[in-house]
Amino acid sequence: MVIRKEKLDFLRLEDIDSASNGIVIMPIAEYLQVKGNQNTLHARSFYSLLLIKSGNLMMVADKRMYAMGRHDIVSISCNCVCSFQHHVPVEGCIILFTEAFFMQRYNTEVIHYFNFLKCNQMHGFVLTSDEIERCIHLMELMQVEYDIAKLGSREVLRNYLNILLQMLGRQITKNFGFVQMDEKEERIVAFETLVDENYKHKRFPSFYAERLNISVNYLNRICREKRAISCGALIRDRIVLEAERLLYHTFKTVKEIAFELGFENVPYFITFFKAKKGRSPEEFRKNQET
User: pTM of the predicted model, to two decimals?
Assistant: First the structure.
C-alpha cells in the first residue's frame, strides 16, 4: 500500500513534546496518537528505538513495509521516511533521542560505532529471550526515570541509553562484524554527513574533499576501501534515494522533484535516474502503484 502526501513533513522532537530537551520516552500507543503519527508520513530529525510487548504494528520505512510483533525491537535512523499503522491494540515502548542529547557526554566516534543508527537505515534485532527481557527491563527503568524527571534524570537516561545501545550494538557486531572506527572510517562518516547535508546542490566530490581537507583521489580510495563504492557513486546514490522517496511518497511531478533536487534540466534528471534505476521516474512511480 502506497501512502502519498503533497510534501514530506519533517518531524522534530519538539513537535511531539515541546519540553523534550533531546529525549522522549512514551508508550507506543500514545506516540501513535501524537501529531497524528498513525498513517502519517514523516522524515525525522531524531533516532528511534521501538519495542513491541504485545500486539502488532505495521511500519513503512523508505518504501518498504515491515510487520512488527511481540518482542520485536527496531531502530530507525534520523532522516528515515516512515509511517505506522495498527489495527489491534499495541503495547510497547518507544525511545526518541537526538544526536545532540547523546553527544553531551559521548564523543562523535561513539555514536557511529552503533552502525545501526547511521543515517537512512532501519534495523530489526534478532535477540535471545534473555536479551529481550533485559532490554524490556532497561526500557522500563528509562520510562520511570523519564516520568519522574528529577534532578539528574537526563544524565541517568543518557547512561541507560548508552547501555541499551551497547547491548544492541553487541548483537550487530556478532552478526555483521565490528566496524573499526579508525581515521579512515571517521573521514567516511564525516563525508556521509556532509553528503546528507549538501547532496541537493553539491554533486561533485571536489566540494567534499575540500571540506574534509583531503584530495579527491584519497577520498575515492577510502570510499572504495570502506564502502566498496566510489565517492561519486555514494553522492549519486543519496540523490536517487531522495528521488525515490519523493516519487513514492508524494504527489509531486517529475519536474517538481527534479527542481527540488537541484536539477535545472528535467530531461537530464530523467536520464540520471534511469541510469541508476534502469527505468524512468514515471515508470518507477507506476511500478510502485501496482
Answer: 0.74
